[in-house]
Amino acid sequence: MQTLLRSAALTTTHLRFRVRAHTLLELDTHSGASLRGSFFYAIMDQFCTNKSAPSCSVCVLNATCPVSAIAAPMREDNSWGHDIPRPYVITPPLEGARRYQPGDGFSFEMTLLGGIVKLLPYIMLSIQQFEREGLGLRLDEHRGQRGQIRVERVEAFHPFTNEQQTIYEAGNMRVQAPVITIQPEDYKRRAEQLNRRRMTLRFVTPLRLIDQDHLVQQARFRPLIRRLLERYQALEQHYGNAEIAFSKEERDAIAHLADGVRCVADNTCWQELRSYSNRQKRTTPTSGLMGEATFEGDLEPFLELLALGELIHVGKNVVKGNGWYQIQS
User: Fold this and answer.
1) Where in this chain does the record put each CRISPR-associated protein Cas6 C-terminal domain (predicted)?
2) In sequence order, what are the residues at sequence separation of 6 or more whose Cβ sits closer than 8 angstroms to the Cβ of residue 256?
């Protein structure tokens, strides 16, 4: 079988924001939703010139607005926001629920997908607004306000080699263009280093998969591959090679191959979580599997896809940081 990532063009650019608490700050267990909301509402506050529009899709400036590709999904309830995958992924701090005292530092990461990296200047120019918006839970000590932060440095980095490049430092408004962008050759090279018969995946943030309208609450290879393949295809079509598509026959053949890979050690657990949506004014489930699972079988057809999955995440709520896994062996 040919590699699943034939003619791949999707690139990823990985940014690490190093932040310091200016006042008392409290983050919940998985703070990706809070980070996503604070940062992208800061972008809209900074650059939206038609805030009276109920959504980006009906705004008369939509076609020419340079940030609608990033901010629009935050405001949409229709199929536009559902069908087009967001062009970014947030990876929250991994310390879990924690109070940060003034002066404490932490970091979070943002992955920009494909050509959306051209909008990086808008993201960087929103940092001061992001700092003013505050972050985390509203605290009694702050009279119901969020904690204040300062972004000290932003680095572009290579997830596979740990190479890094500082592109922003506090006090210096000059932003360097990132020269570290992951190309298809990088995740294909990563795949060549992997074991073709046995692999352990560590689910660092909750993995929430839906298979045949049911939540997947045990480690299973087939639904993981199906959802990852769907995500890869959607991202390629919108941010990489628009010509890439898998026929129903190809998807069925891939699923059949995935059935031959068994989970031989399932050390995962289901973590119940919910996050609050300011847009929907209600909490939504972000629960998922966490821990490690070991798979055995013919993994070779899936290695490149799995290597890419480390970068783009998989499943529900990936923009909030869910669905991040690491290949252990």
Assistant:
1) 201-325
2) none
**Main-chain phi, psi angles of 236, to 5 degrees:** -60, -45
Mean pLDDT of 240-253: 90
Q: Both tokens of residue 25?
A: 């700050």
Residue where a domain terminates, one of 169, 193, 226: 169
Nearest to 4 by CA among 225, 314, 235: 225
SS3 203: strand
Q: Which of 122, 138, 169 is the last residue of a domain?
A: 169
Query: Is residue 112 domain-shared with residue 215, that is, in the same domain?
Result: no
191: domain range?
184-327
23 and 161 inside one domain? yes
The reply to whether 191 and 320 lie within a common domain is yes
Burial call 305-328: b when 16+ CB within 10 Å, e when fewer: bbbbbbbbbbbbbbbbbbbbbebe
CA-CA distance, 64 to 285, in Å (whole number)? 34
- Nearest Cα neighbor of 291 from 310, 313, 265 is 265
Same domain, 299 and 160: no
- Can you give the pLDDT at residue 54? 80
Percent of the chain with pLDDT over 90: 61
Q: Using CA atoms, how far apart are residues 181 and 186, in angstroms rounded to an integer?
A: 9
Same domain, 199 and 78: no
Structure tokens at 156: 């572009």
Handedness of CA 160, 165, 171, 177 (dihedral sign): negative
Amino acid (one-letter) located at 76: E
Residues forming beta bridges with residue 167, ordered by sequence position? none
Token pair of 305 as six digits: 């896809």
Evaluate if residue 189 carries a pLDDT over 90: yes
Reading the block at residue 153, the tokens are 């440095």
**Under 8 Å CB-to-CB from 224, ≥6 apart: which residues?**
207, 209, 258, 314
Asked if residue 151 and residue 196 are part of one domain, the reply reads no
pLDDT of residue 19: 97
- Asked whether 114 and 244 are in contact (CB, 8 A), the reply is no
